[in-house]
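Suppose you are handed a protein chain with no further information: no name, no annotation, nothing but its sequence. What can you learn? This example shows the usual starting point.
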Amino acid sequence: MRTLIIGGGLSGLALADALETAGLDYLLVDGRNRFGGRIMTETHGGGYFDMGPAWFWPGQPRIASLARRFDLKVFDQYADGDLLFENQHGQVQRGRGFSSMEGSWRFKGGMQSLIRALSGHLPKERYRLGTHVTALENNGSQLTATFASGESTVASAAVFALPPRLAAQVRFTPSLPAPTLQAMQGVNTWMAGQAKALAVYDTPFWRHAGLSGDASSRFGPMVEIHDASPNEGGPFGLFGFIGVPPMGRRDDHELRLQVSAQLTRLFGSAAARPDALFIKDWAYDPLTSTPADREPLQTHPEYGLPDAMKGIWSGKLLFAGTEVAGQFGGYLEGALEAAEAVVRDLLK
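A reasonable first move is to predict its three-dimensional structure. Written in structure tokens, the prediction is:
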């Protein structure tokens, strides 16, 4: 019997890759028409710009191992030059300091290069994109999953490789125990309340001015800005995390005006008219976020697999995704850690 993997982000792909290597039957499904989940890379003028996770760090062995396996090129986050600070009145100060992302690594071609490498060798009959599971039934000997299209498939086990709050939206028969559903609904979805803006330029004018591209602001709308440029060549980019709460950023046109105005205050007139301005609001992406996620996280949550989510349906129902990783929860490494734990359970 096959394993059903629900979610084609990094964790789901890593799990599919492991089962493919082991010669086991599986089906990977994802509601998006692409792989990657919260990993999303925009392209412009030959440049690659991450609108979701962008970095990984030393001391994260699983993602480093994948980089070596697929011969992915890694480069240091640009951090040379002065930092900028914007106070609550919109006044800009220039100073020296430690760039908050100095020492982090990025992939040439964006994080999507990792997704392409993992998904590229999966047989087409092993995955379905653009479909999602609406119901899951356990009859004791097998599971039956129903898709939004009305089609169904059977499996011996199902793995939710996506945020637990999204998994809780599935109709379960028999119903899951109340403590299990409460635990699923109580896990904060990493990054779900975030919005990210990214401006693309022909030249890295901030570097020419001796700036690193790093800025912090108490005025906004972006609270934290970094250089998002490729490792070599152009085009070049600046990106920022938007600190305005989700309900205050629904007007896309107004938000774009505010982002452009802030970039101009910080980096001068050269920043006023980017060649492209991408904005991704994860809080309103229904395949990432639920209404409960629309309050941005102020601190890094304590992640891990809650006891109430263990051993469900005699071990037929499992959870992956970065939110259930015990050590690296909330990071890309956590997505790989969680997939690794599920593989151990499936191969017992």
